[in-house]
Every structure is written in structure tokens, then in C-alpha cells.
Fold these 2 entries.
Entry 1:
Amino acid sequence: MGRTSKAEGDAAFTDFMVQAEPSLMRTAWLLTGSTEAARELVQVALVKTYVSWAKVRPETALAFARRVLVNHKVDVWRSRSREVLTDTLDRPVAAGGTTGSGASDDRDEIVRLLARLPEQQRKTVVLRFYADLSERDTADALGVSVGTVKAATSRGLATLRELSGLPAPDPATRRPERSPR
Amino acid sequence: MSTSYEEQLREQLHATTPAPYAGLDPAAVIGAGERVVRRGRIRAALVAAVAVAVVAVGTQLLTTGRPVAAPVPAAPSTSSVTLVSPGPANLGGVDHTYVVSVRPGDGKDLMVDYAEKTADGFVSMVGAGIDPADRRITWAHGGTSSVVLGVIPSATAQHRIIVTASDDFGGYASDVAAIPGTDYSAFVAYYEKPLTGDNPVESILWFDSRGRPVDGQGHVGSIATVGGEQVWLTADGTALGSDQGSYVAGPEDIYVNGFTAGPQADAPWTVLAVIRPEVTTAAAVTAFLSDGSSHVVPTVPLGKSRALAVTVPGKYDSTGALAPSQVTLTEIRWTDSAGTAHVKPVLR
């Protein structure tokens, strides 16, 4: 555990984990739509953060864990077929898992809508509007360019508006489905 | 500038909460982390042991007079390796353990056997015959199970694979390990969801000892050190990546990505670009960045393409928070051997 003793490092990690878990859990839930999948994802992120704990500064620990969390899902999404990556498929609603409450309320509505977004758009929307990251920090977390974040955010917002039954956005703000050549 | 819909969305996202769940136990997370560290140490020790064994076998062959050029027998007898799928599946105390064995088959062929460790012992799974001369990857998945097991035709494959599935089967945890005494490695990829459909596994990339990506047909891709990072590109140019992540290349002439030099957000930021071969073969270009700066940088051969990198330092703003560098590649310019100047904007 680097310069500090293992006990001190473990204590610091425990403090961090207690503080970070709610935020990470909600981020993971918004990304996966499943409480159980989110819990496992947070576990993975925290375990990997612990493994690297000696190299992680306290002030950047949450960003580090969030980046691990998102990139774990990135591995998932990048393992899909290329057709999905073109963002042109009307994908079915992802299995969201049952919450056990039986309540299909507004709380879950946004999660169901998010599940219908292509992965890149879902990631950027969650990081930009839930985690409140800047475009640059979102790009850092996802390992993509700022331009990619901008495009994915724009398309994601447009899709969410459409799915919500809201009027189409101002045409001037719409982005093409594919980057111009 | 935020719109009313963006504000509404932000409020919705902050208001929503997951269903109640059992909180995570710090001791369990720390214990899992310690197991990961221990596995890494054990694996390093095993790699060293295998290397010693290979040297010993080679020495024995030479001293017994076998022609130097003769191939080393792939598997004179049954040889096995145990794989444990790491990641989410074992955090709850449920390890998924498999044994992959290679044994002599009919004629020159070898037989690969797979087995899964269950509470009742080991359960054999369907195996396959392989031709030692066939250097393609071999894998199997069991019906609607969540696991893909296979054999890589290399004893020195790196400890990572990239599996491309035909659909979203959730995340996958993987393990790769050499099969002692053979020139094969075994791998497992354990998905969160059962693999369904006729062909759920589209492709598998593995990495040779140099870090070059190798596709399922045995086509070896390329690597280059670009911007201090080892970057790889598949032989067909459709996928590239580094230790920072992997990417599917789009149709753009210049495919741009970026990475930091470390986990901290204030680490130097590197703009990485891969230029398709029909665009330029120039050994150096002038790279224009979105911050208004320009840099004359070399281009590094990466397969048939060329790659370049421009690194800018990380920095803090006046509040102490990490400031976004907002730097992207906007354009490259170069002059060809005939003296003609070229300008190529980056349109993404």
C-alpha cells in the first residue's frame, strides 16, 4: 500500500468507499437499468480501485473509480457488433431487472428511456447530466474525443426528447447521425 | 448553454434512485482486491516457472540429438491448466473455475477437453480436435451457457483477450494462461448473461508476446509506440487500441482518440491519430490542435496506416479543480515529395 501501512491504506479506502458507493451505485444503475448488475459493477470498480489504491490520490479517487466503472461497461459495449456502434438500430428496451417493488413509477421511467439509447449516448448523457462532468472530463472518462462526446450528447438528448414525446429540438441543434466527411 | 430540457433531464437523473439493495461490505471488497493482487503474483511466478520448463525441454532436445529445426512436440501427454474467471462473478464468493486440457488425439491431431468445476466436482464439457499445423484460434461455448472456452495457438499469449459478441450479453471477465508443456494457451470469457443465438461469438482477438493483436484466423496486426503508449491495430485495420482501451475504427480518414498518461485526470493528455494509408505516407505532418497551437510531429508506421501523437500537459484552474484541456486534433498538413502541400481537416 505504498508509503502508508496497509492498515492505514485500508482504513482510507474504507472511508472513500462509504462516501463514494451511493454515487457510483446510482451511476451504474442508470447505465445498466438493473440494481443487481449495478451492484456488481460497483463492486468491480471498487475492487479495481483498491488494487490501485496506492497510486490513487484521495481527491481523484472518485473520478478514478467512476472511470473504472464506465470503462468496464465500455468493454461490454465495445464487444458488441459494429451495427450497434453505428447508432442506427432501433434497439429494444434492455432488460432492466425487477426491482421487487412492483412500482412502475416515474422514478424508473428515465431509466427505461436511457436503456433505449445506444451505449455511447447513454454513457455521455449519464456522465454529463447525472455526474455533472464537463465535456472534457466525460471524454477523459470514456477515452474518446470531446467531439465524440458532443455528438453523442446531442444525439442522446434528441432521442430522449423524442421518446418522451416532446417536440423535436430546434433543427439548428440537431447533429447528423454520422460525422460529416 | 443549458436548455430547459437539459435541466429537466438533470433533475430526473438526480431524483431517480435504484431499488433498495444490500450495501457493499468494505471488508469483502478489500478481500477481493487482495485476491486479485495475489493472483497477479502467482501468475507471474507461474510464467517464470513455465519459462524455466521450456528452457529445460529445449536443452534436453538439443542434448539428445534432435535436429534443431524440428518442431517441439506440442503435447506428448495430457497437459492441463486451470482458469478462474475473475471479475463480477467471483465477487460474491462464486468462482467459475475451468480446466482446459490438451492430449494426443488420432494421428497428428490433438484433442482439447474442457471441464467445469462444480460443487459436485468436475463436469466435462464438449471438446474439440485441433490440427497442430492449423494456427487458428479454437473455441467453444456451451449452448446457452455464459462461458466461452478456447485454445490460443501460442504459449506466450498475453493475459488479455477481446471477445466480440453478436449481441449484448453483458460484461465478460476473462482469463488466459499457458498450458504447460505445450505451445498453446487456454482462455475463458465468462459473460454476465447466457450466450444465445446461432453464433453469439463473432470474433476473438488475442495478443502475442509482443502485444500484437492476432485475429481468429491468425492474422497478426501491428503495434507501435506512439506518444509513449503502445498502440495496436488489427491486420484488417478495423480495430485499434492501447492499454487505455480498445476502439472500433470508423470509416474516417483520420481516426482520432486520446488518452491520459495515468489515472489522474491532471496527467498529460495525448491526442492520438491513426491516418489511413491512402491519406498520407508523410513521415511528418503539422498537427493543428483546437487550442490554436500547431506541432510538427513524426508519423509512425502502424501496419499499413500511420499514427501520430501530440501530448499536452495537464493543468489546474484557479480553484484547484482539474481544468479540461479541451484539446482535439483539428487538421493536419504536409508537403509531399513533389512539393505539393496538402491539408486534411479532421471532421469528427
Note: Residues 6-32 of chain A form the longest helix (27 residues).
Entry 2:
Amino acid sequence: MNTEESYEIRLKVNGKTQQITAPARRLLSDALRGELGLTGTHVGCEHGVCGCCTVLVDGAPVRSCLTFAVAVQDREIRTVEGLAADGGELHPVQEAFKECHGLQCGFCTPGFLMTACALIEQNDDPTEEEITEAIAGNLCRCTGYQNIRAAVRYAAEIVRSDKT
Amino acid sequence: MKPSPFSYHPAASVDEAAQLLYELEDAKILAGGQSLIPLMNFRLASPMHLIDISGLAELSEIKVSETEVEIGASVTHSQVLQSEQAGSALPLLVEAEKLIAHEVIRNRGTLCGSLAHADPAGEMTAVISVLNGRVDTASVSGGRTIEATDLFEGPLQSSLREDELIVSATFPKLGPRTVSSFREVARRHGDYAVAGAVSVVEYDNNDQVQSARAAFLSVGPVPTVVSFDDLLRGTRIEDVGHSEIYNFLSSQLEPHGDLQASADYRRHLAAEMGWASLEACI
């Protein structure tokens, strides 16, 4: 039987560098969930449509199901597990999604949280249009988008009030 | 929903990428992967080797000259969108980039990659076609220039040879009396357009049309370029009007039908988008 070629892959996730051994075809989403046990990143459609697997690479939201782990070595990867502080204090986007009922079943939530996190880190006073545009690539099938938009708006408010 | 096995080769230079592409059997270039990886996840594509050019500094530049904007092959859509230099030199690039998928895809997907992918639903295939742009390539036997008119051969088929990669795409800037506009219809902003049109209109010194053309996306196997010169030269778009343009386009375009739209509906939408993009150039 042919054995598939393995690669030593250094992944820097939530500030911690870890080495995994995986084939080149290992998607970042599967490396995070399988090799690193970070199952907060969800896998929905696996072809870049649903947005559940969104993580940040060097601060920018990307689809981890459309990214090979081997191709993002040494880049700064952030997942939903990296949002809350070590003591368990929720990140503003988590706090806001909780407050505004921005989640119901929670399957799409990690993707929305990371997308919202990237938005408010770039711009803590987004317009309604900017919020809608930012989350347009994420699908939610149960909560509905109104509460999610309200949550993003409120997350930005928390960030602004934390600064003052 | 998982890709089949392949070997990964991060290229250290364009020369090395070209050498690998020549030597390795069944190899593909990986830049952003936002078109290639979905195809691999579906196993519609299963290359044995991927040559990663995303880290190549020599392909990461946006160069603006007096007459042209040149985009390197590792430049992402987001980088084009954020480039003030490119945006002020050729606002059409920014207008088109905003229509391409969502930010999360634009953050990794590259402009040159979408040209190599040669999807007739791709906005950039229409833009490079209407502007008569070109791509420059590299290979072990030397680089060449491929004009936009010769680049697209069919759906997802470009005229690139198997041992050849795009190193940059070049878009001519528009002249001082030239206006452009992009209009498309998608079920949801960021989705593939059901139909769309990008128009370029050049006016003479009397503000009458000197030349006008449009490229249509999602209406054929390759971007379809239609000239309005016979209809509009020496006159004004508003004087010719909607119905004449609409009828002309309906007779010129031969779209296909699919799950999203019947051929007739798509012809209707394309003709309306053609008119809308021309009207926006008034």
C-alpha cells in the first residue's frame, strides 16, 4: 500500500506554536480540529460558502476549509478558542452575541464571532452597511440575521466604551 | 469533501516555480486557492503536485505607470481593493473587486488566479476583456504575453500551457474622456452573478460617443465582448435609448440556461445590465 507523504507543519495558533505531522492535503480546518483538538472551529460546507470555519490569519478572516495547513506555517492564526481571556472573561464579541441573542443552535457562531472580531478590530464604529457587508459571507439557518447584526453593533459599542 | 493526496512545493522564486511546473507531472500552481481548493475538495480537480507561489515577493507588487496598472500573481483581491494607487489609476478595478465574493474570500484569492481559473462568471475575466488587457507568463522556455482576447478558450479553460504560469496581469488605464461602469445581478451580493456587464465609453470633444463596448459575464463559455460603435458612434447614449440598446443586445447575446436562470431570462438580464452599465457611463 502506498503511504502518503507527511509534512512537519508548524502552526502558530492563538499565540502558541505547535508542530503537527500531516499530509499536504490537510485543510487548516481539519488540522485545527483533528491534530490540535480545537473543535471550536466548525466545518459546514467545506467549499467556502457557509463561513462556519472562518478563522483569522494575520488578523484577516479566511476560510480554514479553503486553506491548506501546510501553506500557513508561522502565520498568526486565531480561532474562537483564542477570544476569551485566560480567566474566562468573554471577548466583547462573545459578550455581545450572548447579550443580544446572536446565537441559537451555535453551529455558525464561531465563524460569525471571528468575522465580527476582525471587523471591530479594524473599525470599532462600523455603519449598518459595513456590518451587513462584513457578515455577508456567513450563513445562519436558525437565529436570523437581525440579532446577529445587533450583536456586532453592540460588540463595537463595548469596544468603544472600553477605550474611554 | 476532502482533497486527494498531493505533494506540496513552496516555490522560492518564479524560476523555481516554472522549473517545478515543467518537471513535475500533473502539477498546478497554488496562489490563493479560493477557486482551486473548492474544486479539489469536490475532487473535480486532483493534481498530484501543488506549487505554492503565494509567498513570492517578486509577484507581490502592484505597479502603476502612466498608461497601465500591473498586478503581480500573488496580489490578493483585498490588496487590490486597498491599493489607493490602483484605485485612483483605474477605479474600474475597485468597482469590480467589490463585486467579487466576500471579504473572507478576497483576503486569500488573487486577481491573477481568477484569470487563470478562467471562469466566465468571474468579474476580472470581463474587466480584462473589456479593457483589452494582457497577462505575462513564465515558463522554462521563456515568458510570453497573452492578450485578453486570446486568454480564454472555454469555461475554466485558459490558453495557458501546462508548463506556464501567470506572473502578472496588466490593465490599460482609461483615457481622459473615457468612462466605465460595472453592473451585475446576483441572488445575493457576493454570489456568482446570474448576468453582468462592464462598459467602457469614450467620448469625443463634442461629448458624443467615439467608441463604446461592453464585456458580459455569465452569458457564454468565455467573456463576451460586444461593440456598440455602429449603434452609438457620433451620437449620445441617451438619444439612442433603452429599447434600441436592449433589442440590440438581445440579438447579440446567446446565453445558456441553468438552474439559476433560463436562457431567455438570462438574455433579458444581460441586456438590462448592458443598458444599465452604459447608462451609468452617461
Note: Chain A has two domains: 7-79, 92-163.
